[in-house]
Specification:
The longest helix has 14 residues. The chain is mainly alpha-helical and about 80 residues long. It is about 50% helix and about 10% strand. Strands 1-2 form a two-stranded antiparallel sheet. The chain has one domain: Winged helix-like DNA-binding domain superfamily/Winged helix DNA-binding domain (Arc Repressor Mutant, subunit A), CATH 1.10.10. Helix 1 crosses helix 3. Strand 1 and strand 2 form a beta hairpin.
Length: about 80
Amino acid sequence: MAEQVPVEEVANAMYKMVKESMGQKKWKATDLTKAVIELFGEDKCDKKLAKLAIRELMDSGRCVYTYFGGSFIEIPHKEGAEN
C-alpha cells in the first residue's frame, strides 16, 4: 500500500470542493468522502482518513454541519453585520 496523504492535505481538498460548489451543491459527508477517495486514490486515502479530515474541518471552524432534510457540510454563513 502506498503512503497515505496527510490529513491536512485531504482537509484542504475537501474545503476547496465545498467552497467551489457553494450555492450550487450541498455536500453530505459520505459524498465528500467518496470524492476525496476518488481524487487521491484508494491506496492513498481511505474512509478513516477522510473522517479525520472532516473532523479537522469542523474543529477548526472552516466548515460546519447544517441540517435541512439531511446533514450537510458547508462553509459557515456570514451574518449581515459581519459583511
